[in-house]
Amino acid sequence: MKRYSLFLATLVAAVSLQAQGVFDVMRYTGTDIIGTARYMSMAGAFGALGGDVSAVIDNPAGLGIYRMAEATLTADVTATKAQTAWGTDASALKANFALNNAAFVWSFIDREQTKGWVANNIGFTYNRLKNFNRTTLAVDAMASHSMTNFMADFTAGIEESALLAENKPYDNVDIPYLSELAYQGYLINPDTLTAGNWYSLLDANEKSQANYKAVENGYVDEFSFAYGANISNVFYWGASFNLQTISYSVQSLYGEKFEKGGEFTLRNTLKTSGAGYNFKFGFIVRPASWLRLGFSVHTPTYYTLSDYHYATMDYNITTDKKGNLETPVAKAYYKMQSPMRLQASAAFVFGKSALVSFDYQFTNYKQTKIAQDQTQLSVDDAYADVMTDINDYVSNGHLFKLGAEYRITEGFSVRAGAAYRMPHVSDDAVKNVPLNTPR
C-alpha cells in the first residue's frame, strides 16, 4: 500500500465552494444587547425612550428626543464562560475588552418654539451589534468510540486509488477532505478483500481519549448616519442609513490519543468577512406626559461575504508513520440577506424620578436568503440546500426587553433590565456541509 504524506507541501490550488450552513447563516442575523452603559443596563429597552445614541440601533426616532449636542464613547470588559459535560466536565473562560459605542449628535433646536418643527437632529453613531468571542473546551474520558471509526464509515464506497496523491483527490468534489486526511494520516485502512470498504486503524475494543477546543473571535459592527425630528414635542420620527461589517473566525482543534499508542490532532480554521447595508425608519409618539409609544421598521440587510478555510492534521502513529498534512485553502464568495425586523415599544415615565420601558421585536427568520455571488462562482444553486434547511428548521423570532430606571439624585440613578429571546432554530436542525471542505 503506497501513500504520499508530503505531497501537500507543494499543493497550492485553491477551490471555490459553498461553506455556510443554516447555523452559520443564523449566526449573523441576530444582535446582542451592546451599547452605552445606560442602554445595556436597561437591556436595550429604548425603542420608545430615545435620548440615547444606542437607541438608534432599534429606533432612529430616538434621535429626535435630543435637545443638545452630545458625544459619547463606551468601552467594556466582558467575560464569556462555556461549560461542557462530555466524558469529563470542562469549562473555559474568555475575557474581552472592546469599544462598544462611539457617537456624535448635532442638535438644531428652537427652544422658544413649542409647536411645529421644534428640532432637527443629525447623528453619526458606531455600535457593536454582536460579539463572537468565546472559547469552548471539551474533554472525553477514555472510551470505546473514536473519530477514526467515523472517518472509515464516511469513506465507505470510495476506492483507495481515488485517494492517491497522483489522482489529485482535492480536485474531486466527490472526495471528502476528511477522508483524504484520514487516509494520508494512516487513520483508516482499506479492506483488502472488498474495494470501497474501510476500517479504523484501531484494534477491536481499543479505546481512545478525545479532546476538543474551539476559539471564536469576531464581531458585527454598525455605522449609522441618522436623522431625527421633533414635532411639537409630541411626535418624533427618524430614519437612518446603516453600514454593517462582519468579521468572524473560529479555530477548532480535535485530538485523540490511542490506548495502545499513537495520536492525531485535526485543526480547522474558518474566517468570514464582509459588509452590508440597511435602512431603519421609526417614530415615537407622546400622547401624554407619562406615556411614550414607539414603532420601527428595519429593512433587510444586504451582505456581500467571503469565506476562507482550511485544515491541518498532525499524526504520530508509529516511528515511520508520522507527519503533518494540510488541505488546500478553500474560498467562497456569496450574498446574504437578513430578514426584515419590526419593533413595537412602550415606556411609562413617572415624573423625573422613574421610568419603565418595554420592547417587543419580531423577526421572520424564514426570510433569510443566501446565494452565490455570480461574479465569482459559476455553479448554479450552490446554496439550494442551505435555503431548504432555512425553510425546514427556522421559524419566527420573538425578542422581549424590559428596562427600568430610578433616579435617586440628579447625578445618580439605579437601573435594571432583562431580555428573553425565543429560539428560532428547531432542535431538529442539522449542520450539512459539502464533502469537499475540511469542516
Summed up, the helix count is: 5
Which consecutive residue ranges, at least 5 long each, have pLDDT under 50? 1-18
- The topology string of helices and strands comes to EHHEEEEHHEEEEEEEEEEEEHEE
Identify the overall geometry.
elongated
Rg over alpha carbons = 27 Å
How much β-strand is present in the residues?
over 45%
> In whole angstroms, how far apart are the ends?
28 Å
The level of helicity is: under 10%
Question: Overall pLDDT, averaged?
Answer: 87
Number of strands: 19
The description of the largest β-sheet is: 17 strands, mixed
- Structural category: mainly beta
Can you walk me through this structure?
- The protein has five helices and 19 strands.
- It is elongated and about 95 Å long.
- The chain is mainly beta and about 450 residues long.
- It has helices at about 20-25, 35-40, 145-155, 175-185, 385-395, and strands at about 15, 70-85, 90-110, 115-130, 135-140, 190, 200, 210-230, 235-260, 265-290, 290-300, 300-320, 320-325, 330-335, 340-350, 355-365, 370, 395-410, 410-420.
Keywords:
439 residues, mainly beta, 17-stranded mixed beta sheet, two-stranded antiparallel ribbon, 19 strands
How is the secondary structure organized here?
Layout: E1 15-16, H1 22-27, H2 37-41, E2 70-85, E3 89-109, E4 117-131, E5 134-139, H3 147-154, H4 177-184, E6 188-190, E7 198-200, E8 208-231, E9 235-258, E10 263-288, E11 291-298, E12 302-318, E13 321-326, E14 330-337, E15 341-350, E16 354-364, E17 369-372, H5 384-393, E18 396-409, E19 412-421
Parallel strand pairs: 1-14
Antiparallel strand pairs: 2-3, 3-4, 4-8, 5-8, 6-7, 8-9, 9-10, 10-11, 10-12, 11-15, 12-13, 12-14, 14-17, 15-16, 16-18, 18-19
